[in-house]
Amino acid sequence: MRRKDREMNREFALDVIDQSHYGVLACVTPEGKPYAIPLSIAREGNRLFFHSAASGAKVDYLPDGQEVSLSFVSHVQVPELFTADELAALKNDPNAASKLGSKVFTTEFESACAQGTIRELTEREDKLEGLRVICQKFTPDKMAYFETAAIGALHITKVYEIEILSLTGKRKRFDTQGNELKGLIKG
Question: Total domain count for the chain?
Fold first, then answer.
């Protein structure tokens, strides 16, 4: 990671995964081409889960043991650190280019990047466990109906697990005075 001052710890990165609405999974196809796809990914412990239809590019490109990379981004926003009058003053200041670039034309974010090994879950109970983790993240208020839906869809649904082998977290965030918060959470 180039910006070590923005690096965060493992717990921070896991929290980003948990808060993200989706993650982007990337791999290399058997033909050596890059392939990346956004997925609804849920985590339990050191394992990530997603599901798929029984056929398609994902299924073709993700054999057991394939190494994959994933990226997650949460809390993205453009900071509002200056009033309109302050911005007008910066516009007329020839020395303000750096400040405008780093504090106005930027985004705050939290991100996590993971690498891992994928495997398809084929046993009924394992598939149900993976689907349960996914549904608890995305539809927690509908879990009373989970068993009926999941059991009815098992025959047409593939479920995958990725064991996290490495994980990094990063953030860019400003405090109320407009100072960038540095990666104070290491370890």
Answer: 1
